[in-house]
Amino acid sequence: MSGDRQPVGDAGLVARCRVVLEAAWDAGRGYCFPHAAVYPNQWLWDSAFHAVAWAAVGDTRGAIELGGIFAAQLEDGFVPHMRYAGDEMYRGPLAGSSSYTQPPLYAHAARSLESRGVAVDPAVVAAAGRGLDYLWEHRRGDDGLVFIVHPWEAGSDDSPRWDSWVGTSAWSREEWTAFDLRLVPATSWSDAGAAVWSHDFVVAPAGFNALVAHALAEHAAMTGDTRHAVRSRELATAIDRLLWGPATNLWIDRPIVGGGPSCAVPTLDGVLPALVTADPEKAARALDQLWDESRFSAPFGPTFVWRRHPAYRSDGYWRGAVWPQLAYLTWLAAHRWGRMD
To answer: pLDDT tier at 105 (50, 70, 90 boundaries)?
Structure first.
């Protein structure tokens, strides 16, 4: 299926972006795989970002990719973070998909598609609403924050914010893989097969909560659902009240089961609540750090960790240069506050 919408931006850049998307497109499965051999599966937020990119280059395939996110949605609204392309990956008891979730970027993707004139199936918009309802009803603690039960759910899998759980400050692939897999049997599952709690790892991350609040606002803007608009404001208020860290002028994570001081490591996750906060002073203090060379500013886009923090590693996995997803989201936050300098 070829696109028929008008792309935006520099024609040469758009053409190069299209080449990347085309090279990863699997027409049979209806999504772009992150890596054909290593990561052939469909990831929730990867596909949401792909949908945004397809729309930006003037191609309607983003609507197909967005729809695929919900192919494995459970009846209660839970949206798995991965649909398997082959053999089971053992991310929980579900067959064909993982039993964990991921940041609900699908609402922003749907709104981005519509803003580019790409029609989104009403059933997909409704499925996005059910996914957000699930998070609100099943993943919100007594403090009003949304929690996750595995680092995979945050998107930023091996962030130094989880070091207190791992018991290390020096990242290694072997140690982190063992940690990730150790958390699977520590997870409790619903009767339907979704992750609901963990005996070893539960946390309310600043970034994840910001993305849930943002998704609620995006869905409300698309549908006129005032219930989601109210929820978005309520969650944004809780984020400001409970997660603001004056020592770093960033929002920090809140450990619930396990964890410790690593939750306050200054990462770009701590800027994301600028997407939803109503406090201009907090937003300015966080966003200012994108221009500070001792913090996140670097010649080729922001870093994920402060450049002068002990956890920073220029070649590190989630410890050096930022992943494109976070660069895009911080751009959205800066745009919201008119910080296009």
So the answer is: very high
Q: Could you count the other beta carbons within 10 Å of the beta carbon of residue 57? A: 24
Query: Is residue 102 a contact partner of residue 153, using CB atoms and an 8 Å limit?
Result: yes
Q: Which two tokens stand for residue 66?
A: 């967005």
Bridge partners, 303 (sequence order): 321
Backbone angles phi, psi at 280, to 5 degrees: -65, -30
SS3 287: helix
pTM: 0.95
The CA distance from 135 to 82, in Å, is 17
Q: How many angstroms from the chain centroid is the CA of residue 281?
A: 24
> What is residue 321's DSSP assignment?
B
**146 φ/ψ sector (left φ>0, alpha ψ -120 to 50, else beta):** beta
Answer yes or no: is pLDDT of 1 > 50: no
On whether the CB atoms of residues 4 and 45 are closer than 8 A, the answer is no
User: Could you tell me the two tokens for 243?
Assistant: 């997660």
Handedness of CA 111, 113, 114, 120 (dihedral sign): negative
For 98, the 3-state DSSP assignment is coil
258 backbone φψ class: left, alpha, beta (φ>0; ψ -120 to 50)? left
Residues in a beta bridge with 202: 257
| Rounded to 5°, angle at Cα 34 from 176 and 329 | 80
Beta carbons of 80 and 99 less than 8 angstroms apart: yes
- Which tens digit of pLDDT belongs to each residue from 209-244? 999 999 999 999 999 999 999 999 999 999 999 999
